[in-house]
Design a protein that fits this description.
single chain, mainly alpha, 39 residues
Length: 39
């Protein structure tokens, strides 16, 4: 069986930070679009 090598902790932290920042940016953009559409 092939087992993938685990990523170092720093790589995981960077990955999580990127995902969180992108999701926050995406949700804030959605809120802005919804706000302009509602007004």
């Amino acid at each position: 069986m092939y087992e993938p090598t685990p990523l170092p902790i720093t790589a995981w932290k960077g990955l999580y930070c990127t995902i969180i920042k992108r999701s926050l940016f995406f949700s804030s953009t959605l809120w802005q679009v919804a706000g302009t559409a509602a007004s």
